Amino acid sequence: MIDYSKVLSKAVVDTPKSGIRKFFDLMNTMTDVVGLTVGEPDFHTPWHIREAGIMSLEKGKTYYTANAGIIDLRHEINSYMTRRFGVSYLPESEIIVTVGGSEAIDIALRAIIEYGDEVIVPTPSFVCYAPLVTIAGGTPVILETKFENKFKIDPEVLRATITPKTKMLVLPYPNNPTGAIMTREELADIAEVLKNTNILVLSDEIYAEMTYTGNHCSIASLEDMWERTIITSGFSKAYAMTGWRLGYLCAPKAICEQMLKIHQYGIMSSPTTAQFAALEALKNGDDDIKMMVDEYNRRRRYIYNGLKSIGIESFEPEGAFYIFPKIADYGLSSEEFCNRLLYEHKCAIIPGNAFGKSGEGFARISYAYSIKHITQALERIEAFVKTL
Amino acid sequence: MNTDILKLLENDARLTPEQIAVMIGSDVNTVKSAIEAFEKDGTILGYKTIVDWEKTDRESVSAIIEVKLTPQRDSGFDRVAEKIYNYPEVQSVQLMAGGYDLSVLIEGKTMKEVALFVSQKLATIDGVIATATHFVLHKYKDKGVVYGATEIDERGNI
Hints:
Chain A is an alpha/beta fold. Helix content of chain A is 42%, strand content 13%.
């Protein structure tokens, strides 16, 4: 019999299962659960965008596209990045259309990391960074961000985390799960630390449209930072297009050339239908974004105030569509809190430690839900904390 | 801010002033007095429930009637429109540009009732030149709400 322990990649075997996954498995064993767990918009993809996808199929556009994506789409991505965030990229050589933001992150890491390289991963953050760094042969070095500091990266902590082996800093803002953002001034302090080093930045800007206290600032727009930044983003959150699996990478040509090789050999080209839909999204989707972001903003205020009136402390999220309340004061671990809330009051939220050790004592609540649904969940949370 | 309040209420009239205040980052008293002012000056005309009557036993028929009119001296179409909308079975009356003048939505219990209304009441009003009645077979969407569809959250837990 084959001994799988001898054939499977150790790096992969040693990679832990996603903590979110674990909790979802638990949740799926129960019925009538009111959950605030999902990390994707509750809106459907706007109809004109869906129609553009359908139209492309009707016209028989069912072939592969250029490896880096349809050139028209890359032009639109550039004009979008320029008009929204003031950063420009050559459509011919500095933009790659990927299978979701996830593939973008993966190939960016793989194009840069060599065995033993260190990549600084701030936490709490989305679950994919550290495992993908490890699988690419690198060593994730965790930089813990703090509630007291609104979950932002402290430049001094960053400076102390850098070693001669540091190759890259992951910059996950606006942040899932904390809802933190980093302003231009705060990014300038980070840039100051990185200046005169060879450290690259992987700026995951998938939530860039979801900011509520001012426009998102891309670190690539700061002086001297363009040349050392890889931006990953996508259509999932901004245009409610998660299932289309479409994202993109923007980076200097020298980096893009290498990333494109991985994309070319591993993927070929991103789904053609999704690319045509995305083209329509970028051309005519600004109003859709505004409508959705206005709605998220109302829910953000609603849930922040709701938690506050229950007596649960959280910092007011400024981006993405999550709130990360502090539940440590109830004397339970994140997992105990969420498990008991689930079993005793049939309400699901994600334990904060699923997003890194520094998430312990917190829980992630998504507000990509209707006000009615949020109200119901808040009632259950309130009933639960009253018993503690 | 005032447009925000109106938009929220238009979408869900059951939102409380407390909820609205939180959602738009204002305070309850400001929202309350804004709503009162809207009600007083007729910006907010009422609050109703959207009912899908096809799901009940209640029999009803509705029709859209295109009405052509002769405009009256002094009052134009207004007087005739008033005569029409005063009938309680008339749900809406709108002045149109194009091939006809008024679009009238009427609701009755049976087709006969609607037909009688058109022939005996509507068509006999002074100034009405012609009518064309279109019966509604099925309502797919009204006031921004899709009928018959109950949304299930199909989002994957990933």
